Amino acid sequence: MDYIKYKQIEEDLADFFRVCHSKHYTAKSTLIRPGDSADTLYYLREGSVTIVMENEEGEELIIAHLNQGDFLGEIGLFSDNADRSVIVKAKTDCRTEEISYQQLQSLYATSLKECYPKLLTLLAENMARRLLSTTRKASELAFLDVTGRVAAALKELSAQPDALKHEEG
Questions:
Q1: Assuming Cys at both sites, which of 1, 13, 38, 157 could form a disulfide with 69, CB separation 3.0 to 4.6 Å?
Q2: Residue 82, Cβ neighbours under 10 Å: how many?
Q3: pLDDT tens string 17-69
Q4: Would the CA dihedral through 154, 157, 163, 169 be positive or negative?
Q5: Which of 168, 164, 7 is CA-nearest to residue 92?
Q6: Cβ within 8 Å of residue 79, ≥6 positions away
Q7: Closest alpha carbon to 96 in 53, 52, 40
Q8: Assessment of whether the complete model's pTM goes beyond 0.85
């Protein structure tokens, strides 16, 4: 996320951050596990995380990489899913702002009245971006050969803010 957009979000959501609980996670720690109660919205204020699904044999599928300025756990606000179904791991040290769905819903008409429309807009943008990414990945799995899928994965990883850059490209 570019600096100007990030600073604008920080300003627009100042009231939201005041009612959240700030937490720190060290690199490689787990924020969310399958079966955890889906009752909290997270905002990634610093750092980056990976969202992973794991099968019974322990094989992992990376669903997404999220970075500073992204929300996670937002789907539970809009659905009846009682439990989490993915693993969220910190790629780097992270700082999150966390608020329970119950607290968020009880405050939207009072202390969050001014920023709630902006918060909902950002959540919708976040979910749309992730849906587009998932759709793109599904089409790559269906239509690209192994070489094409590897190339697409490398291109996606190279676009991450924490990607290592080489002077020759």
A1: 1
A2: 10
A3: 999 999 999 999 999 999 999 999 999 999 999 999 999 998 998 889 999 99
A4: positive
A5: 164
A6: none
A7: 40
A8: no
